[in-house]
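seq as requested:
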Amino acid sequence: MAENNTEVVEKKEEKNQNIRQIVIYLLITFVLTYGTEIFLIMPMVGSTDVNEAYAAQSLIASIMFIPAISALITRFITKDRLIGSNLMLGLNLKGNMKYYGLVWFGFAFLIILGAALYFLIFPEHYDGNMGYVNVLLEAQAQNTGQVITPEQMKQVMMQQIIMGIFLSPFLNIMNCLGEEWGWRGFLLPKMLKQFKVVPAILISGIIWGLWHAPLTVMGHNYGVGYRGYPVLGIFAMCIFCITLGTILSYVTIKTKSCIPAILGHGMMNGFASVGIYFTSLENPYNVFLGPAATGLIGGIGFIFTAAFLLYQLYKEEQMKKN
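struct tokens:
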């Protein structure tokens, strides 16, 4: 009987410690993020001063490290040791290559599929001559004195797309490590101890989406001035984060590592907007629908994949109970 009582007390203490870590982590993460974005970045956004514009971009990039920093601070405050079993940073390649494939070439396929579907539904938004990119390249050419022919432009863009597929996961690896080691490497395991798998992943996704709120207000991903601004943008970002977060959580759970999530996040950051290269200037695209993966149609492949994987995790959890 005494042993049972001791076990109950230990489980209660472990649960209280888990809740405490979640609360401390979220408080630190949101205070640091919102404070930096509202008081430092927002005043500089839209500034005509080049130095301020660069400083704002640098600060935005640095924000991605806050989740990982918050995880470290939380571990220090709660005396949670950094050991191999809880670092979640092993490659764990054996038997897990399919999960790496999903977040690499699988993501590339879903991004291209979503863009293609968007242009099938809205053909007037498609421009095979890449007018959107052409304007950007012409502006750069004027600054350098170079002349770029349409053929050269297409070759350059095809090279960029191919490089994006193969290099995006690695070019963005440091910034994405900053986010994923916090969200998937620290918060997700804590949430899974506190909730069943479905609510744990969905709540984590909502938290991740709300974490982006100040940047969404500033126009990141969806711009400004649209009908329903900024609530619609924040809502859309939460849906996107729930969707992407579900897939990244799935591969993290399966591999017991956040490395696949880091690579998948990097792939998304570097390649998700490839469809915008082919949009028309005369007929602007609908940012909430596509062709980028952050839109409802552009991201439809991710939505179905996330729903399927979440259901698989639910079934596995139910089977373990039985």
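The mean pLDDT is 92.
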